[in-house]
Amino acid sequence: MKIGIIGSGNMGRSLGILWAEQGHEVFFGSRTTKKGKEVAEIAGQTTQGGSNDEAAAFGDVLLYTVRGVHPAEVFSSTSVIDNKILIDCNNQEISENFDYPAITQSLAEKLAAEVPNAKVVKAFNTMAQELFELAPIPLKNYNVSVFVAGDDESAKQTVIQLVQEIGFQAINCGELRHARLIESAGDLIRLLMIQQQMGSYATISVRSLPPAETQRLGGRQASNLK
Ligand SMILES: NC(=O)c1ccc[n+]([C@@H]2O[C@H](COP(=O)([O-])OP(=O)(O)OC[C@H]3O[C@@H](n4cnc5c(N)ncnc54)[C@H](OP(=O)(O)O)[C@@H]3O)[C@@H](O)[C@H]2O)c1
């Protein structure tokens, strides 16, 4: 796959290197060509670097790490991302005392509204960069969930493949509007990491369990709550 990284900071550099290790063609984009090239040099392999415009033109899949910046400010023309898969890994800024407003429109939905011709998929916002350092092994042994949501089924399946290749477990969360819940999970995990001192390696994984052999507690009854 051809992957363009938009903003080569912590997330862009880490995911770009991991995908390049899996044999994908990766182009690191940045506000300055110099930085894009420097990151490609660190990443090595066959990666390239340059401007965000060049990264967007290069990739069929783009990782958008630029939180809250309208694509019209990032690219000379947003038409460069028409029909491309745009992975949104962003979380809102951590608010003082973790006192967040309720999410009624996720960052991913906002991005999709800004670039309606791109196929926006939410992924990779519920774990810290430190976890990527463990990928793909030993990370694979821990079944760490990446929650994936998007309205274009084929784009979502492509992202699920990219999630799994680097050692995470993809959880298909359905439509893009469910990114509101995924971004709230991102807020929760940062609360656990930062405020409650669980450390950088805290993350969220979903487990699916087999049913109990007996229902000695009476099983689930119809609820009469309104
Ligand atoms: N770090 C984590 O552990 C982590 C984990 C999960 C999710 N996230 C989320 O992922 C997103 C990126 O986080 P990060 O840690 O990668 O941040 P970061 O290291 O600061 O990288 C973000 C990049 O965005 C680019 N950028 C910043 N302002 C810009 C602007 N006005 N216009 C264009 N480009 C701009 C910069 O790239 P250039 O300097 O290359 O231009 C910068 O390096 C955030 O929304 C964060 O909440 C982060």
Give the percentage of residues in beta strands: 15-25%
So what's the overall shape?
globular
**Strand/helix succession:** EHEHEHEHEHEHEHEH
By DSSP, the count of extended strands is 8
Domain count: the total is 1
Q: For the largest sheet, list the strands in their spatial order.
A: 3-2-1-4-5-6-7-8
CATH class: Alpha Beta
Q: What portion of residues is helical? A: 25-40%
Whole-number radius of gyration? 19 Å
Largest sheet: 8 strands, mixed
User: What is the SS-derived class?
Assistant: alpha/beta
Mean pLDDT: 96
Q: Compute the number of helices.
A: 8
Say which molecules are bound, naming each kind only once: NADP nicotinamide-adenine-dinucleotide phosphate
Give the distance, in angstroms, between the N- and C-terminal Cα atoms.
50 Å
Low-confidence stretches: none
- Gross CATH architecture: 3-Layer(aba) Sandwich
Structural notes for this entry:
By secondary structure, the protein is α/β, with parallel strands linked by helices. It has one domain: Rossmann fold (3-Layer(aba) Sandwich), CATH 3.40.50. Helix content is 34%, strand content 16%. The chain has helices at residues 10-21, 33-43, 52-58, 71-74, 107-114, 129-132, 153-165, 179-195; strands at 2-6, 25-30, 48-51, 61-64, 85-88, 119-122, 145-150, 169-172. It has an 8-stranded mixed sheet, with helices on both faces. The protein is globular, with a radius of gyration of 19 Å. It starts with a strand and ends in a 31-residue tail after the last helix. The model has no long low-confidence stretch (mean pLDDT 96). NADP nicotinamide-adenine-dinucleotide phosphate (NAP) binds at residues 7-12, 30-31, 35, 65-67, 69, 74, 89-91, 125, 128-129.
